[in-house]
Specification:
The protein is built from 14 helices and 2 strands, in the order αααααββααααααααα. It is mainly α.
């Protein structure tokens, strides 16, 4: 048979879920029926958020169409916390996330036609259930989840949902802790926690002037490029603002939705720049002190020596200017 491995995996999952659904129909329970599919949808929404496939801070645009379409995974090389990545690994085990997604798709399809081969999406009920799940903020009270369920599909769905919800609080707290470590040096640099795009540009201009002056003074320090930060200054400003809004947030869902876009990763360039410039400022300060001591003060100072001292004074002035931001 000529078919891709992806299609074969898809066919296998489809058949597996269909068989489970047939079994479930034979043991129908209206209350369990409603809750298990809500759990499946909520779990799929969590997956989209955690995997970086849905990066908005509101559930409003998480529609039926968005839920059922395939999206490229954005979070491949990220700076998420260990707990975040561990949860993703748990969700991927034994294709649990793929099976859950297929469960949602299959549940809301109606078989029509004599041969039973035409599948028509039950859009009305799907949208109704999605709206209910979103209104409940992806939560289902523990008392409404059966401790035991005779139907394997429902039991597996509840288990998958609880694998997520039992960890999501720790994931949110771990992301906040990681973000604080990254954003604090930025706050310290600007002496503020509200940093606009223009503030970043002012910092970059001062950094560029600092490296130009130390080059003119023939101080052997490699110039650091600010191009990456300059190019993404607006995204950096937004990431700082986004992180700031959830540092004291108690709602895990609000936290993970904010961190879905990986704002910690967005800040890596400016954090690296601030760290490098800080080291260079300290080194230049030391070299200027040594050079001034080496020049000494005497009546026979040449005009060239005076000019060189002036250059060192200019560099010290630039360091003082940077110090206002540091």
């Amino acid at each position: 048979r000529n078919s891709s491995p992806t299609l074969e995996v898809g066919d296998f999952l489809l058949e597996k879920v269909k068989k489970q659904i047939i079994k479930e129909v034979l043991q129908y329970d209206e209350n369990n029926e409603s809750k298990y599919i809500e759990a499946a949808i909520a779990a799929e929404m969590y997956r989209l958020i955690l995997n970086g496939e849905y990066r908005e801070k509101s559930l409003k645009n998480l529609t039926a169409e968005y839920l059922l379409c395939d999206h490229p995974a954005e979070n491949k090389n990220t700076y998420h916390s260990k707990d975040w990545n561990t949860l993703l690994s748990v969700m991927h085990q034994k294709d649990a996330d793929l099976i859950n997604k297929e469960t949602v798709r299959q549940y809301f399809n109606l078989i029509q036609g004599g041969a039973g081969s035409m599948l028509v999406l039950d859009a009305i009920n799907l949208s109704k259930t999605i709206n209910k799940v979103k209104a409940n903020k992806l939560q289902i009270p523990e008392e409404e989840i059966p401790l035991e369920d005779r139907v394997k599909l429902r039991k597996d769905t509840y288990s998958f949902f609880e694998d997520i919800t039992s960890r999501i609080g720790n994931v949110a707290q771990s992301e906040i802790a990681a973000a604080k470590k990254v954003v604090q040096p930025i706050y310290d640099c600007f002496d503020d926690d509200e940093i606009e795009d223009e503030d970043i540009k002012v910092l970059l201009d001062r950094i560029a002037k600092f490296y130009k002056e130390i080059d003119d003074a023939q101080i052997n320090i490699k110039t650091v490029s600010t191009d990456a930060v300059k190019k993404s200054s607006k995204q950096i400003s937004k990431a700082i603002s986004d992180i700031g809004t959830v540092l004291n947030e108690d709602d895990p869902l609000a936290v993970i939705m904010t961190f879905s876009s990986d704002p910690i990763g967005t800040l890596q360039e400016i954090v690296s720049l601030i760290s490098q410039v800080s080291r260079d400022v300290a080194e230049v300060d030391k070299q200027i002190a040594n050079r001034k001591n080496g020049l000494g003060v005497s009546e026979g100072e040449t005009e060239e020596t005076e000019r060189y001292k002036d250059k060192l004074d200019v560099v010290e002035s630039d360091i003082a200017l940077l110090g206002e931001l540091w």
